Amino acid sequence: MAWSPIRLFVVGTILLVTGPYFFVEGSNRQASGERLLREGRKAPGKVTGHRTGRSGGVDYGFAVEGRSYSGTSYMGRGHRERFPIGAPLEVTYLPTEPALSSIEPEEMPKDGDVLRKLGIPIALLGAALIGVGVWLTRR
Questions:
Q1: Residue 18 pLDDT greater than 90, yes or no
Q2: C-beta separation of 44 from 90 below 8 A
Q3: What's residue 109's pLDDT?
Q4: Are 70 and 48 spatial neighbours (Cβ–Cβ below 8 Å)?
Q5: Residue-wise over 48-77: b if at least 16 C-beta within 10 A, else e?
Q6: Residues 99-131: pLDDT tens digits?
Q7: pLDDT digits (tens, 9 = 90+) for 69-85
Q8: DSSP state, residue 53
Q9: Which alpha helices (DSSP H) does 52-104 contain, by range?
């Protein structure tokens, strides 16, 4: 199947928009994780559920100064065995923003770095596809 210039423009545009989103989201996640590691406080929490799918995750709840919060930490396969529903766990949260929390804060900067590093090549691939589409229309 040959790639038409229109198809190249559409896919290229999607990638050109997605790449910067990954870069910004990764940068934000990395900064949040580093902030949690620097300024975070610990609170007891409890596993409230699991996310299914390729990335998988653990839903958890915790309380700070009488107010309840919840969060999800995405961590891939094997999380069900490590974090059974109802099990106690330790949550790291920001005192100034308790909704920003994690059960594995040391992983957040790594995840963010991966997303950030993917963003640039994805955007460049999108620009290249658009360029090929332009080139094909002028041949």
A1: yes
A2: yes
A3: 67
A4: yes
A5: eeeeeeeebbbbbebebeeeebebbbbbee
A6: 999 998 887 767 778 888 999 999 999 999 999
A7: 999 888 766 677 788 89
A8: S
A9: 79-82
Helices and strands in the chain, H and E counts: 3, 5
Taking the C-alpha atoms of residue 135 and residue 5, their distance in angstroms, rounded to an integer, is 9
**Tokens, residue 17:** 């928009």
Place of tokens 């396969």: 77
Above 90 in pLDDT, residue 89? yes
Structure tokens at 105: 């804060």
Tell me the three state secondary structure of residue 77.
Answer: coil
What does the block give as tokens for 138? 């002028």
Rounded to whole angstroms, the Cα distance separating 93 from 90 reads 10
Amino acid at 35: R
Tokens at residue 124, please?
Answer: 């460049």
pTM for the model: 0.71
Q: What's the token pair of residue 132?
A: 């090929």
Instruction: Pick the closest to residue 20 from 123, 111, 129, 125 (CA basis).
Output: 123
